[in-house]
């Protein structure tokens, strides 16, 4: 017998309307995270989602343009965005959708047969306008365009960064440094605000412990992480913080290399905590602790938002913010 929303509602002990709104990612619904998770778990156990994807596949054939803000060569250097795209492609395949990967500088290659666009990365207002002209079904991933009226899938940075600061604080480490990246939209019009750096500053200011001389800005590459850590070592000497929060895994790997060259022991003298938790964090020695971001889930959620739009003709924008977890490895133990 086919599973219904009523079956899920009865097992979750909530109303039918609550189940429907949760499964449709209605973020305006006032319900606890525990209830949301219970509904998704029960739906999965009953294979409701699987049935739903089969229905979608049978009823809809859609062509989706997946627009990356990076160039193709740069995407392969950044496992974070590559994983998001793979999450999109996997979920789209389950739904019977066809995807075409396009890079921001190739928008003229988007055909007239495109039914929707999923845009990954950071975009300026003029770029957002250009994307919206391709299709009125537009979802952004890793770029919060909710205020502009578009569906958006983002990661929680504030709570994640606070947890990293608390992780060090609970271990008696109060002088904490940071290495982060500065970046611009690909048309060089808008500097992208760095939410990790902003959240880091806010978290330490709550402890009255933020020290701007411990913060170094690079460009998200491994080479930049290496150079910024060398700069920190040269400038700070014996004042070098006992711990660093680093904005992504490539920068953390570069910073680790600089510390090792300077014969500064990790984690004995300096501990490192990174962000994103790509496979790179496990491929260095010592392995790097990192904030785990559900990159593939970000991609699949973007597809789910499109499915909801196709099925319901929804016009109101939705914003889905995904949580993170801390993964402790040898760089902080």
Quick overview of this protein structure:
By secondary structure, the chain is α/β, with parallel strands linked by helices.
In words, what does this structure look like?
This protein has 333 residues and is an alpha/beta fold. Among the domains are: 5-52, Orthogonal Bundle (434 Repressor (Amino-terminal Domain)); 158-293, Rossmann fold. Helices cover 42% and strands 18% of the residues. It has helices at 5-12, 16-23, 33-45, 48-59, 72-75, 79-94, 125-132, 158-169, 195-206, 222-236, 249-261, 295-312, and strands at residues 63-68, 98-103, 116-120, 138-141, 151-155, 176-181, 215-218, 243-246, 271-276, 289-293, 319-322, 324-327. Strands 2-1-3-4-5-11 form a six-stranded parallel sheet, with helices on one face. Strand 3, helix 7 (125-132) and strand 4 form a beta-alpha-beta unit.
